Amino acid sequence: MQDKVVYSLIGIFLSFTWHSTLYADTEMLLHASTLTSKQGIHSDQSILSLSVQDQSGGDDDWLAYTEFYPNAKGYTGIFTFDLPASSDPSAITALSFTASYKGAERSEQRWQWQIRDFYRGEWVFLADNIGVPDWEWSLVNADVNGVPAHYVNSKNRLELRYLTLSGHDDSDLDYLALCVRF
Questions:
Q1: Which H or E run includes 16?
Q2: Residues 79 and 35: beta-carbon distance below 8 Å
Q3: Helix (H) or strand (E) holding 5
Q4: With pLDDT > 70 as the criterion, what percentage of the chain qualifies?
Q5: Is the per-residue pLDDT at 15 higher than 80?
Q6: Contact 51, 91 (CB under 8 A)
Q7: DSSP labels for 54-83?
């Protein structure tokens, strides 16, 4: 009987150690698997074009980025990111966001990124185009605040919303990623 208890305790310890080691200081880069335009439209490049940052300065390789066209009321698009099914959302210690943006300065037209908090049922502001030069490729970065697991739904998906409330001008994205840290 005592041997069974010892083996059980060793098994629990090894399981915990393996789980902790598996996720200790690990980063996973997620790229969007889908894009759905809810208001306005986007160009028809593959979603895969957003997984490689290959534009800079004034570059304009049409096949390398996605363009977003607001209607008179603006643009809203939802990007879906899939966390591997084997990943445990409760083990996530941090989330961050990176986009490569080209478009108007914020003073001319505000474009923003939000992440869905599935726990609270609301969108949380991440970043906007403040401080970026007019129509030059610029990196936009933000750390996601709050409990990381709240941003993962029951299907291990995360969602980002890209939007503007103005129909003034288009914008372009060359790269979009979420960094997940365990």
A1: helix 2-23
A2: yes
A3: helix 2-23
A4: 87
A5: no
A6: no
A7: ---TT---GGGSEEEE-BTTBEEEEEEEEP
**CB burial of residue 5 (10 Å; 0-12, 13-18, 19+):** exposed
pLDDT at 17 over 60: no
Rounded-to-10 torsion of CA 99, 100, 106, 112: -20
Q: Is the pLDDT of residue 34 over 70?
A: yes
Strands 75-82 and 94-103: unpaired
- Asked if residue 58 has pLDDT above 90, the reply is yes
Q: Name, in order, each residue with C-beta under 8 angstroms of 72's C-beta and a sequence gap of 6 or more.
A: 167
Element (H, E) at 175: strand 171-181
CB atoms within 10 A of CB 9: 10
Given a cut of 60, whether residue 22 has pLDDT beyond it is no
What integer is the mean pLDDT of 85-113? 98
Nearest to 99 by CA among 110, 109, 113, 82: 113
